[in-house]
Structures are given as structure tokens and as C-alpha cells.
């Protein structure tokens, strides 16, 4: 008899799977290194045909032993297997010898009889009852001597992917490689994984109709089958599609746990006594010290080595890369330019010039040519001729070395980021206007000017369509419209809250003071009428002398115009008035008519109906004038300068030099110590009157001419409007401390007005109480930005 064994157990012949040619498959059983399993297991007879069928298809005889001596009609003998009708378990290696001997001795008598019946019988296939009991005792004794086994590690959700049961082990191989094969890979034992049968589209449709989980199935190419997703995986897919965090248990808004605090802890990390090694001198440090001592003894290390002497002479143009100490005469020689691709003897085609380029190059003067050679193409290096400009270039190189500067000029090594001031974030500087709220539409021409009443409830606007409209700011409703014969140049509302009156500049020099009917309170209407009655009384008492003193006439309108239109008085200038500005008390206002020569600037008083020209002769063409908000100062802006006059002393205090070509607008800070100036050459200048007569800051944020600049009365804001259709909002904080300069930060760009005929935003003004700004443009609209 032949006794065939594996490494640690017997190999049993399974006679249930046979081939038609008489070859018998002997299946290798898996090893059972643990204790003997006495409970019955399922028979192998039923599963054999399926295994036979799959093995027939692949014809894989890698793991079978073939016994050709047996016949097809052999049957399993009763003595070959146990009564349990199951697989014969392989015993541990320790009990293998005793079991082998007992089986051989106990079955000598039966061996001759069974040899005739079956040639396949193997010794050790069956056990006697005594041998069985003896084996059980021996295995129990061995198990009692062994220590208890640790529990197996369970792979949970957080474990790595190595614990997953992967059938196909081909790894990251493209599955297209297996398109022409009947299998799709190999399992962990090296056997081929067959490709599952795929039906046609009709079968797929019927299977999806029958399978309730088809909507949540996903085809896995590597496994060749459909995997049903569970609820947790579906929830992850939903969250990924919605842009949420995939983990449902993760809370992005949970409170921060301060793992590391700034408090210094005094207790030690460990209360254990310090180890003995901390008090023993280190062996390795002693070795390092001895190594240094040996180097000093042999002379490799020289302690207290004297400093090396400086050389008396320097090679100016030496190209040695050794670092040298700084010396005023040590200047690196100018390097020659490295050759380009077109200097090759066989350059690429795109570098070769055309005939037109060659002709153009030859017509240029030698000093005007971008390069002193033309790229040429040769088939080999042997055909390249000598360079005809070799001597000239050597001579020029010598001149470069001879005439090169030999004095080092230290360059300032400044980080560019350090030059940029660290400005606060615009979010920290709120409130300021950010978006458009209301658009006031009704004018049919470009709106050159508008003005707000001191409370901030109403607004009056003047346009090129010869009309003046009164608006309610909060609703955008037009309350009243005045029609005139010519263009409206300027409007200005009286800043005194007790009065309700505004001034309008119409056409060729007419200035009309209007008290809008049914707008103000009865107290305001009464006080306004008293103001103008005082002027009428003063004008009637003065008589002809008054007309002689007044440079321009004051005309009383008709009673019909007074009642219906609210006209109070009319002033007739010699030229068109471009600007009207009021004094903060509301009794005086100034007008600017640039073409009126000596009468270009006039100051008028309502209560006396009196006008005066403060300047006998003006230096330059006046553009804008302003009253100081607190002191008796008067600002006059010409094309290039801003002059500050004292009205009480009647003298010039200061001249501000703007540095711009043409001043277009002017405004004074409510504190009175800072002035901003806008110009037609796109610049905005901030002047600090206590600092200098030159601009403290010059800002250029607009791409076209600046039309208007303005300060807010309450908030630290100022703005500028331009012909590029934008409004720039700035944060301008002025500090009471004289040692601290004003803080200027751009915070917002407002765009909404369209540019018409190269004209954009023509006028802007802040709301007197809210952080809002209103603007008028050439697109016939007024806009409120909040």
C-alpha cells in the first residue's frame, strides 16, 4: 500500500468525482491544525458534480492527483469512509505517528480482502473505536497543556482594506486586458475567477423589474457582478451630490476643545523617580570629546587659530568662485550673453529668417539691428566657416572689461511687501454704502446737480431738460416740477434746519431762491418768510444807494410766482453761475461764475439783500469755492491751486499746491482740518492743513476724469465720482491726536450708472444722517446707494 501524506495530515481520495476516461480526481483536503472535530459535517457527494463541471470547463489539473489504475464503475467501499458520511478530517502532526502504527497493525487481517475489491484503499482511512478514544484523550491532554488563545481581531469599519474578503486579486490591472478571456482574474489560491454569464438587454430589464434592489445596485467590473448598496452608502452618495460632508456623524460646528492652553502647568508629566542614567556621565559624549582631543593632538584641529592675513593685491576680473571678503574694489566682471538657439549651425526652421526679414535687416543701421548676425543653416559642423566678426567682438569685450565700473554700489535690500501699508479689512470699517436701493427716474436730460435738505427727507435735482424736480428720498416719488427756459447749472439747499429754501442757477446768470410750497412745517414757512421780508425792508430803506453798492441786482418776483411756484427773490449775474454753496448758518451763500472776471466770486446775504465781491483781482480761473464748516475761512480753488482766505482779517492764509493739471471739485472735512480735491486728470488729493501745503495722499483709482468729491457729515467716509461710471467709497478716519496721520482705506466701488457721450457720474452727495450716498449721471437717472 502507498501512504501519501501532506505536510501535516493525510490526503484522502475523494471517489465521488470521476472522469469518463477512467481517471479519478483525488481532492486535497484543507489542514485542520486544531483539535479533532467530532460533529458530523455535510457530505461531499452532492457538491462533487458542480465542482466536476467547473473543472471540466477549465481543464485545470493543478491541484488534483490522478489514479489511473481505478475503473469508472468503482464505488466507495464501506470501509473507506466512516459512518458519518462526511469528510475525513486530517489529524495534527503530533498524533500522526501513533495513529499510523495503530491503523496498520489493526487492519492487517482485512488488508488482503480489501485489496481485491479496491486498489484505491489507503492505510489510515478508518479508525477503530479504541484508537478513536485514545486519540481524543491525547488531543485533550495536549490542549490542556497549551495556553489560552487570544480572541481573534475583528475587522470593523475603521480597519484597513486588507481585512476585506476580496475574491479577485489582480490588483489595479485594467480589466480590459481580460476582455478576450473567459475569466476576469484569480482568487487568493491562484484559481481563475470565471466571468459571470451576461444576458441580453431583455433579460437585464426583466431582472431589474423582478429585483426590488436593482435601483441601488452598482456593477463592479473587477468582481463581474452587481453589489447592492446599503443605506449608509446611499446616504454618503446623497451627501456628496448635495455638497455636504460625507460623514453624517461629523459636526462642523462643534465647539472648539482647547487641547493646549496658555496656562503654565506646575506639576510634572510623570511622578516616577528619575532614572539612574541621568546621573551617570554619557559614554557617547566621552567618545566625542576623545575624538576632538585626538584631532587636536594630530594637528587636524588648531585651537585659537590666528586670522588669515588679507592679500595685498586683488585679481579684479578673476572668475574664481571662492567667496572673498567684501572689498570696495571687488566687482565681478560683466558676463557675456549666453548663445541662443538661432546661433546654432543647424537651427530649427522657425528661427531661420525669410527673404523679407533678411532685406529689412540689411537696410537697418548696424547700431539699430536687434542682433548683429543672421541665423544660418549648415548640414554639418565641418561646413561652418570662420566667424567674420570675431576680432570686432573680442575688441568690444575688452572694452567692456576695461571701461566697466569698479566701484560697488550697495543696493537697498527691501522686502516689497514691507512697503505696502497694512490696512484694516473693509468688513471692520462698516457701515458704508454697498448696493443700489432706489433709482429716481423722470428727467429726460443729463442730471448735472442735486442737493439734499438738511434733515434728509427731500432732494432737489436740476437737469439739462430745463426742469428742477423735488423728490421724496425714501419713496422715490416726484413731489413737484419747476420748468425753466434754459439749462440748470447748479442747485443747493439751505443747510439751516429752521429754513426751507434752496437756490437754483438757471441759464445765463439767473439765480432764483425758491421756498417749495407745502413741504416744510408751518414754523419753517413762517421763519422763511420773515427772512425774506427782512431783506425786502432793507432793500426798500436803502433805495438807490443800495443798487449802487450791489454789484448785481436783486429782483422781487411777482405775487403769482410767489404763491404758485414759491419764488422768493431773483439775482441776475453777468455770466452763467456754475456753482452755488451755502454758509453753515444759512444766511450767506456764494456763487461762482468763472467767466465773469472780477465778479467771478460773489458772496450774498439774504437778510440784507446784499452782494459783495471779496476779490478785486483773481489769480487764475476759479473752479470751486467752499466755506469752512467752523472758522471764518473761505476756500477758493483755481485750476492749479487752492487758496485759503480769512474773511475776518481779509487776508490770504495758505496756498495748497495740488500738483494736478485741472481741479474739478473740492470739499472740506466736517472737522475743518482736511481738504480733498478732485481733478480732471483722474487724481484725488487729500490735504492735511496742519501738516503741509502739499498733498498728504494722492489717490488714483479712476480711469477717467473725476467730477465730484464729497465728505460725509457724520461718518468717517468720503467718495469720488468719475466719468468711468463708478463711485469710489473710502474710509477716511481723522484722529484728534496730532501725531497720528489720517487713515485712508478704499472700501467699495459702486457701479450702476452707464456712460453716455463720455460722461458718467456727474454729482454725488452723502445723506446727512445715514451712511447712504446719492448720485446723478448722464444716463438721466438719480440713484440711492445704501
UniProtKB/TrEMBL annotation:
GO cellular component: nucleoplasm; PeBoW complex; preribosome, large subunit precursor
GO biological process: maturation of 5.8S rRNA from tricistronic rRNA transcript (SSU-rRNA, 5.8S rRNA, LSU-rRNA); maturation of LSU-rRNA from tricistronic rRNA transcript (SSU-rRNA, 5.8S rRNA, LSU-rRNA)
Region ranges (Disordered): 1-166
Principal subcellular localization: nucleus
A molecular function GO annotation: ribonucleoprotein complex binding
Chain ranges of the BOP1 N-terminal domain: 178-433
SMART domains found in the cross-reference section: BOP1NT (SM01035), WD40 (SM00320)
Renumbered ranges of WD repeats: 440-481, 699-730, 761-786
Pfam family, one: BOP1NT
Keyword terms of this UniProt record: Nucleus, Repeat, Ribosome biogenesis, rRNA processing, WD repeat
Biased composition regions of type Acidic residues, renumbered to the chain: 50-133, 153-166
Bias (Basic and acidic residues) ranges: 26-42, 134-152
Family listed: Belongs to the WD repeat BOP1/ERB1 family.
Stated role: Component of the NOP7 complex, which is required for maturation of the 25S and 5.8S ribosomal RNAs and formation of the 60S ribosome.
Subunit structure: Component of the NOP7 complex, composed of ERB1, NOP7 and YTM1. Within the NOP7 complex ERB1 appears to interact directly with NOP7 and YTM1. The NOP7 complex also associates with the 66S pre-ribosome.
Matching PANTHER family: RIBOSOME BIOGENESIS PROTEIN BOP1 (PTHR17605:SF0), RIBOSOME BIOGENESIS PROTEIN BOP1 BLOCK OF PROLIFERATION 1 PROTEIN (PTHR17605)
Name by which UniProt lists this protein: Ribosome biogenesis protein ERB1
